Amino acid sequence: MLGLLKYGTTIVLILLNALVLITGIEEEGILTNHFLVQLHEGTNEKAQQLAKEHGFESARKLSFGEGLFHFYPRDSPKNRRKRSLKHRQRLEEDRRVKNVFQQEGFGRQKRGYRDLSDFDINMNDPLFTKQWYLINTGQADGTPGLDLNVAEAWKLGYTGKGVTIAIMDDGIDYLHPDLAANYNAEASYDFSSNDPYPYPRYTDDWFNSHGTRCAGEVSAAANDNICGVGVAYNSKVAGIRMLDQPFMTDIIEASSISHMPQVIDIYSASWGPTDDGKTVDGPRELTLQAMADGVNKGRGGKGSIYVWASGDGGSYDDCNCDGYASSMWTISINSAINDGRTALYDESCSSTLASTFSNGRKRNPEAGVATTDLYGNCTLRHSGTSAAAPEAAGVFALALEANPNLTWRDMQHLTVLTSKRNKLHDEVHQWRRNGVGLEFNHLFGYGVLDAGGMVKMAKEWKTVPERFHCVAGSVQETHQIQSGDKLVLAITTDACQGKENFVRYLEHVQAVITVNSSRRGDLNINMTSPMGTKSILLSRRPRDDDAKVGFDKWPFMTTHTWGEDPRGTWVLEVGFQGEVQQKGVLKEWTLMLHGTQSAPYIDQVVRDYQSKLAMSKKEELEEELDEAVERSLKSLLSKN
């Protein structure tokens, strides 16, 4: 409306005469057989009679303005230029008519409604239309538009070519016709049986179908008329069988995570410690060393990319108690269901970086994740955050094809910057913005991955600056904790300013904490950054009855302060939640800062955020002005 005001009286007169056509549009637009007719004497009976005399079905009185009527045809509105010109000429010559305006036809689309044909993507795979997480048009009662936006990445030509993703799981049915062409045998291995053939062990209940289903999400071939399509359908998939033995060992985990790091680009893990709401566990010494070697030496020094499912313990668990998902070296992925809500099994924590999709609360049988299954079969029922991690691995494969020089940290930065809130909705935790304007959620991280946005940014991406680590401070004194009273501690830091390891722009922040309590599951720990961002480091876990072990130098991690300036005072709050009185002792809190000394794009993020704030205020003013103009026009119309 602001743009219209500059035309002054001319545009207002056109609006007065029924808000129809601006000079010049009539020759280019689609003319319809609908007319706005203004009569000298505007009674309804006279308008009806006049409409029928001129070959119209009828006339409808308009509520705005005096003597205004809609003359509409007997047939459906089409582009009938010659016939409509005669109607117009005859009406203009009629002495009872004051003004005639022929209606132009123009396009409007239902908000949220999408059809697969809109994407100009032709796939003959029978389950493709069921793969709502790829292109969501509202299948299975879902929310249109809530998907990974792979269509945009595919249209740009990125399909995962040249990238190898390893599925660390219970094996892969590499004979499956939808996987065979993309199977990378060289990069595959069976660490459960110590041979190069990671085929799943047979069980009557198909228990070992997990890895095959995950593999199909990533690398199922396109246009082969089998099952569905992988997120990165031209990528190579490797099978690392390592879950199918009575007990896991540090050697098997470390061997799997470090298998062929110069061939494998991305490792996808949909497993971890038991999601029972009472386990606190993580990688052992060898696995930690393998991960460190992977991010430092893998992919020719660019770093192996580890994608981890955040966990299926639901509201009873906290993924910061999972040392794999909460590691700085992994990208922890949570899930949403097809209408944007949380799945009931989703765990929340401050270490989750982003989200993809899985099934959840819907009873619709097609609301699950469609993918490959054992013995050449297909399924619509893959689920859990197990389904979420491979989808993320597929998106990252698209980004690596767009820019093979991306480091493991580049991928994390791209995830933070391009993930979107979209239509995700958490009924417990609100969406918030951190100190530099990045929007995040305690459960969904920085939002749902956007493949199109990520590949576009990846193409132009310049490797982030060197990473530094700063021990910002430590509280070593013993502090008592009682129910009803929060323990509040503070560390003021310069973030090692003036030293070689100065951290100016944050990536990960760790609060290394030693604490014991009469009931570990009732502990609640929050930490607030100098820029005011509050991270929930530990939520209540009602099934955790531990009274002995507690947390021993446990590194609680947050990604919510990404990009912030860490200098200033950090505040830790420790308390109890629950009806029964509890007590505890905090013995240590050490604050670890990880980040860079320069990160120019963060400055751009801040400028963009400030610009958005200014724009929102401008839009408020525009809305007020629009309303004022509309009131004036209605007043003028009524007087005309």
From TrEMBL:
InterPro entries: Galactose-bd-like_sf, Kexin/furin, P_dom, Peptidase_S8/S53_dom, Peptidase_S8/S53_dom_sf, Peptidase_S8_Asp-AS, Peptidase_S8_His-AS, Peptidase_S8_Ser-AS. The keyword Glycoprotein applies. GO terms for biological process: peptide hormone processing. GO terms for cellular component: extracellular space; membrane; neuron projection. The active site is at residues 169, 210, 386. GO terms for molecular function: serine-type endopeptidase activity. Residues 1-24 form the signal peptide. Keywords: Cleavage on pair of basic residues, Disulfide bond, Glycoprotein, Hydrolase, Protease, Secreted, Serine protease, Signal, Zymogen. Residues 463-599 form the P/Homo B domain. It comes from the Eukaryota. Its EC number is 3.4.21.94. The keyword Secreted applies. PANTHER family: NEUROENDOCRINE CONVERTASE 2 (PTHR42884:SF13), PROPROTEIN CONVERTASE SUBTILISIN/KEXIN-RELATED (PTHR42884). Serine endopeptidase which is involved in the processing of hormone and other protein precursors at sites comprised of pairs of basic amino acid residues. Responsible for the release of glucagon from proglucagon in pancreatic A cells. Belongs to the peptidase S8 family. Furin subfamily. This is Neuroendocrine convertase 2. It comes from Chanos chanos (Milkfish). The lineage of its organism: Eukaryota, Metazoa, Chordata, Craniata, Vertebrata. The gene is pcsk2.
